Amino acid sequence: MGKVVMYSSVSVDGFVADENDQPGPLFDWLTSGDVALDDGGYLKVSQTSYDYTKPYWGQIGATVVGRHVFDLTDGWDGEPPGGVDHVVVVTHRPAPEGWDPAAPFHFVNGVEEAVAKAQQLAGDRIVEVAAGDVGGQVLAAGLVDEVRMDVVPVVFGSGKRYFGSVAAQHLLGDPDVVIQSNRVLHLSYRVSPPA
């Protein structure tokens, strides 16, 4: 099975959104370059960010998100973001009324079930877990292999935390990726096994 990666863009003080669920400038690095990252050419990054991000995106087989993110994005209109094949939504509610059952979205009750379903769907590809409350729960359950973050030079002061409401200490390995780019610092850490 592929590895499980917790990922998001994040402020230098550890937030993935402000108190009103707004990302502010967290995704500006995705439109501040001159190299097209997506097929439509909407996302344009520096060559450095492209070289780091494009291969990673190509390895993602499934993404795990919480119902809150699903609702905020209106379920991406039934099209998984970034060309991902499947989205697994952690929720205690059913799919929205009128939701197309053929859309590659799967609704499950807990993070363990979500990761297991995502791994089944992804095969040997990466399972990406959105940072925030669900990501923190997956980390706390010991199911995350790697933490990736795109650190953006902004301080929010408060908001939605990258690791959600994780209450215990979790030791990460030394960063195995540190790439400085245009308006972003790309970092990757392996998660140390529990002691």
UniProtKB/TrEMBL annotation:
One Pfam family here: RibD_C
Gene3D superfamilies assigned to the protein according to its UniProt record, in alphabetical order: Dihydrofolate Reductase, subunit A
Lineage: superkingdom: Bacteria
GO BP terms in the entry: riboflavin biosynthetic process
Positions of the Bacterial bifunctional deaminase-reductase C-terminal domain: 4-170
Molecular function GO terms recorded: 5-amino-6-(5-phosphoribosylamino)uracil reductase activity
Protein name: Dihydrofolate reductase family protein
